[in-house]
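Structure (tokenized):
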């Protein structure tokens, strides 16, 4: 029976917005704050978020506000009265203020407010009091050492390893000259030290300690305490100019970043070189403190700068370079990179990290990173270093290097905010562009055999659903993230703060999916995402579509999760209304239209497949097909002639392109199918004991004559006769095959697409040092089966008999497959992580490493993560895991973790239905 059912499928994905709105002064469920906010900082050890007002509001105690990672509201910390400069019950200069700049010393906000441009304030919360302590540094001078700065235009803090990181830490400020703009005259950089003085006093006959707080404003030029003078930074500064003075420095908000490991300050500039043919500009300045003096140093020498494509520097008459934001990344391979944004692009440049005179400067991109081991008998791994600075143009990264291009190219619009977590860079976009809606996007670093970055994943949407985002931060101790967004009243500025969470979206999403895939028949058994750039999907702006496919027992559910609205692609705004449902395996009765957002198909040939755990989109350039697989084999969605949808016009929003004469047809002679992989017009079929490949052809589908080629079988691989196959990756000129006896690869001279018989595959054993045997899962971080670029593969090596699981990392490029240099000693390259207990899925977003396991005996399903940067080389033992609460203790199964490419949410399925992180 075929029926067209109406469901309020808004309950499925648009309420997946289920991120939590954090309450501010508004105290309602619609909007966090009644005034714009913009600045946001996170105290990483605890996940505490601090936000600041971008508008002066009389008596506003929320001019600065804080919220904990588990709190539901903000606490305003700018009351009317405070202890100001060690005097009780004073009017608070920050109450009701507009905050222009903000940084953190430990948990304490350090700010500059509007209307008081030559002062810096620090707001301390007292543990046993509701009254903050506010300490100010006033009348901060420019580089003349005489005149007050006209305005502080940049603020950054350091925390150099004290017992209390808030005390004795340094505040850096970029200051305009007294006469005006930054970049001219006596503009520059000054630093202050926040200090505590403890004094013994006697009150009522009892002796006690009284603490007072103050700023020591240094003469940054001469290293004199209380000297109050900036070091000059202007168009004539040697660290900025190449040959002649710059024509100008234009930015009047100066972004700065302190790297605590390198003890280096990085200053982002926007400016124009002088008029001479050999004049040039360095738009990032490096600084460090030596003998209490602030030294401004060239980040790369003049000899390394030539032409106009070197990202942070250029040479040529009147050449302009603009760096908007600057950060550093510490990779999980123990290397350092400078991360910079310029308009809608983000770049990574390697840094010298071995100490010495060149510490923190741009490293020569052509060198091989060196692993360092201690001199004891264990030869334990201690560091990985880049030694040589870039001294010639050939050693400088440029904007065409794939290793430098984060996200493999531009973003839809200019970067509003940037956050680095682990091996990934996250950016906030507030405007649409490139026919895409705004939001948060991330890209993950891809490492070569020496541990250096050789590539990046494409930009992937995460967390948000196509809204304007003005700020982002992540809690490194959980999967939660904060973001700042607007409202209907404030569309172009942030007033809302939301925090991500794992949830079902609302009761509706749980109800719908549990109805479609009941627990009694094992629920959801596969979750798949097909982004809008999938082969055979429409490329016409206005018609684009992306879909999720959910599979289970004898059933397939297609959901349109993204489409074009007003010619901008983004998350589906109208999961609205119509789900077409079929119970005989056909699309008979379907009238494709733009309001259809889902198709549910069961029965027919799907009854022969049984539990369906695999799905793929296949195309030969003429047609596109949906293929699904499971215990009973594979089935393909086509018409009676074997034709799929027209791949030239492409599958369009509303599933236009699917016809009512389509049905699922079982093809081939497969069984126990585990995975399907499409490459161009080829489909690879992985089953328990075979790897097969066939060419897409409507004629062959019509006649059920696939002419498939078997590429692997246990009996044809020496030493693997008693094994089963678990996972497969086919990429570039190599295939990797996970088995119960270890990892296999095709021969180095073999191209998988061209293998004609089983014996020519030349399967070879890949030795993973200290392995526990079986390979359970392979995870390609590029998420792009067709890309020929270098990538990293995460390998889950797990044996349930030993209750052991280890994770390895590999580098794949063309026919080359090598282990990444994850080492504990100099003697062996080994695993990244020893989990210590069995797991059966692995995935990563570069920030965290996610592993999971379905119910085992009487133990509930497990889903957990490890902080990726803390793993490599740290110890032999299992590391600390962080459980993720999904509310599934009474259930049995988990699917692979999947990213929804349209709205950015993580999804994981099982017999419980679906859980979503958004």
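Design, position by position:
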């Amino acid at each position: 029976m075929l029926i067209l059912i109406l469901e309020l499928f808004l309950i499925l994905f648009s309420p997946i917005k289920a991120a939590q709105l954090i309450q501010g002064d508004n105290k309602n469920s619609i909007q966090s704050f009644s005034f714009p906010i913009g600045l946001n900082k996170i105290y990483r050890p605890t996940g505490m978020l601090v936000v600041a007002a971008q508008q002066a509001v009389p008596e506003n105690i929320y001019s600065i506000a804080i919220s904990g990672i588990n709190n539901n509201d903000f606490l305003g910390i700018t009351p009317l009265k405070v202890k100001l400069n060690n005097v009780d019950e004073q009017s608070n200069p920050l109450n009701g203020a507009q905050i222009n700049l903000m940084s953190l010393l430990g948990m304490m906000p350090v700010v500059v407010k509007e209307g008081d441009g030559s002062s810096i304030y620090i707001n301390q919360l007292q543990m046993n009091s509701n009254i903050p302590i506010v300490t100010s540094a006033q009348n901060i001078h420019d580089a003349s050492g005489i005149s007050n700065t006209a305005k502080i235009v940049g603020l950054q803090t350091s925390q150099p390893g004290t017992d209390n990181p808030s005390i004795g830490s340094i505040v850096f400020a970029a200051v305009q000259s007294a006469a005006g703009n930054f970049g001219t005259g006596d503009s520059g950089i000054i630093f202050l030290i926040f200090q505590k003085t403890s004094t013994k006093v006697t009150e009522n006959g009892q002796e006690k300690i009284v603490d007072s707080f103050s700023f020591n404003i240094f003469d940054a030029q001469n290293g004199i305490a209380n000297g109050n003078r900036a070091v000059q930074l202007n168009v004539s500064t040697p660290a900025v100019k190449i040959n002649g003075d710059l024509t100008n420095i234009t930015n009047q908000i100066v972004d700065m970043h302190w790297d605590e490991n390198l003890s280096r300050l990085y200053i982002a500039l926007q400016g124009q070189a002088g008029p001479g043919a050999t004049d040039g500009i360095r738009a990032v300045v490096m600084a460090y403190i030596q003998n209490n003096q602030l030294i401004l140093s060239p980040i790369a020498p003049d000899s390394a700068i030539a032409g106009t494509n070197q990202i942070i520097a250029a040479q040529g008459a009147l050449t302009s370079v603009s760096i908007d934001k600057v950060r550093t990344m510490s990779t999980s391979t123990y290397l350092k990179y400078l991360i910079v944004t310029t308009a809608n692009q983000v770049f990574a440049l390697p840094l010298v990290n071995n100490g010495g005179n060149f510490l923190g400067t741009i490293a020569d991109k052509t060198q091989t990173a060196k692993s360092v081991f201690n001199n004891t008998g264990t030869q334990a791994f201690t560091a990985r270093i880049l030694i040589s600075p870039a001294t010639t143009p050939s050693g400088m990264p440029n904007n065409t290097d794939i290793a430098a291009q984060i996200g493999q190219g531009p973003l839809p619009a200019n970067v509003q905010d940037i956050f680095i977590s682990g091996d990934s860079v996250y950016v906030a976009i507030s405007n649409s562009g490139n026919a895409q809606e705004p939001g948060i996007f991330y890209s993950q670093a891809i490492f070569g055999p020496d541990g250096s970055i050789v590539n990046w994943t494409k930009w992937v949407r995460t967390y948000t659903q196509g809204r304007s985002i003005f700020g982002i931060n992540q809690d490194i101790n959980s999967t939660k993230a904060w973001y700042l967004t607007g409202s209907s009243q404030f569309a172009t500025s942030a007033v809302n703060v939301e925090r991500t969470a794992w949830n079902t979206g609302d009761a509706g999403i749980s109800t719908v999916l549990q109805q479609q895939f009941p627990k009694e028949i094992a629920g959801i058994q596969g979750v798949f995402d097909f982004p809008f750039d999938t082969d055979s999907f429409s490329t016409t702006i206005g018609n684009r579509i992306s879909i999720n496919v959910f599979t289970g027992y004898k059933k397939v559910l297609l959901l349109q999760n993204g489409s074009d609205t007003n010619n901008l692609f983004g998350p589906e705004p109208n999961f609205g209304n119509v789900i077409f449902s079929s119970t005989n395996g056909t699309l008979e009765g379907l009238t494709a239209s733009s309001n259809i957002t889902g198709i549910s198909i069961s029965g027919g040939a799907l009854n022969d497949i049984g539990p369906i755990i695999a799905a793929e989109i296949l195309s030969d350039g003429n047609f596109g097909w949906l293929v699904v697989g499971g215990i009973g084999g594979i089935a393909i969605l086509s018409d009676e002639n074997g034709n799929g949808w027209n791949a030239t016009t492409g599958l369009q929003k509303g599933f236009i392109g699917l016809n009512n004469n389509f049905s699922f047809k079982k093809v081939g002679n497969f069984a126990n199918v585990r995975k399907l992989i499409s490459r161009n017009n080829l489909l690879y079929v992985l089953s328990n004991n075979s790897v097969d490949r066939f060419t897409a052809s409507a004629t062959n589908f019509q006649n059920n004559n696939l002419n498939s080629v078997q590429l692997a079988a246990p009996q044809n691989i020496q030493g693997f006769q008693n094994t089963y196959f678990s996972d497969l990756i086919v990429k570039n000129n190599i295939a990797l095959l996970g088995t119960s006896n270890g990892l296999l690869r095709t021969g180095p001279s073999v191209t998988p697409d061209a293998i004609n018989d089983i014996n020519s595959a030349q399967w070879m054993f890949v030795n993973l040092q200290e392995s526990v045997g079986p390979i359970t899962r392979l995870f390609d971080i590029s998420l792009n089966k067709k890309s020929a670029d270098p990538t990293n593969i995460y390998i889950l090596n797990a044996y349930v008999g030993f209750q052991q699981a280890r994770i390895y990392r590999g580098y794949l490029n063309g026919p080359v497959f090598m282990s990444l240099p994850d080492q504990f000693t100099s003697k062996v390259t080994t695993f990244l992580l020893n989990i210590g207990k069995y797991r059966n899925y692995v995935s990563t977003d570069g920030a965290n490493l996610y592993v999971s396991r379905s119910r085992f005996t009487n133990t509930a399903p497990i889903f957990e993560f490890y902080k990726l940067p803390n793993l490599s080389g740290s110890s032999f033992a299992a590391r600390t895991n962080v459980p993720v609460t999904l509310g599934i203790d009474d259930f049995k199964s988990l699917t692979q973790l999947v990213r929804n490419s349209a709205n950015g949410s993580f999804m994981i399925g099982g017999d419980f239905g679906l859980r979503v992180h958004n």
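Reviewer-requested clarification: The CA atoms of residues 141 and 147 lie 5 Å apart. The chain has three helices and 74 strands.
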